[in-house]
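ARCHIVE CARD
Drawer: 12
Card no.: 0347
Subject: one protein chain, sequence and derived structure
Cross-reference: see card 0346
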Amino acid sequence: MRAGDHPVRAVRDDLPSRAVRAVTRLQLPDSTALHAQAAEGCRISPSALRNVEPILAQLDRHAPQTGRALEIASGTGQHMVRYAARRPYLTWQPSDLNPANMASIAAWRQASGAANILAPITLDAGAPGWSAERGPLDLIVLVNVLHLIPEDTARTILSEIAAALAPGGVALIYGPFLRDGVPTSEGDRRFHESLRAQDARLGYKDAAWAAARLTEAGLTLPPPIEMPANNLMFVARAQG
């Protein structure tokens, strides 16, 4: 990713982005580190290094062993190669909308030598209708995206995820959320406010709001799982 240069509709601090029409330059926690890296080759995001192990632990618990998996907003590609190693009998599809991310995703794929990772695709996950083309999927992974997109785009992404899942398929949705409208730490408050200052449409979504959207879309889910650094993991499952 070319940090700090993110299409507004779907960006994330460690890997972003994907959507399009109006482009906003966001300053995110990893922007400085990623600016310093070459545009090609395996780029390294500090945030991805920090959060990958807790995410993998939930992947171990909830992901199917076989089938088709999609990662929305693969960013640098660091997470994808770890997922693919953990679930070698899933066929993994990395995706992103930011052209600057594609070279790094492809480089990580090549370096891993994993036969179960497909070439990255361009996907605007905030646009209605992609589920009909990409589904049915047994697993969808969405990490650190919802706070970096407008609410209407987040609503579309969650409904499209639900529509794309095969019967019994699982969506793992990770990131920071408000609880009853309130940030859970001073650091979260500052980050939420910094996003709002850069673009008033952005910022943390409430956990109850996200749960309601997933339920409305027909998915079943237990209470979200508490993760390190005040993050949450939603494990949403399609019926059947």
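Annotation on reverse: Confidence is low (pLDDT under 50) at residues 1-24. The chain has eight helices and ten strands.
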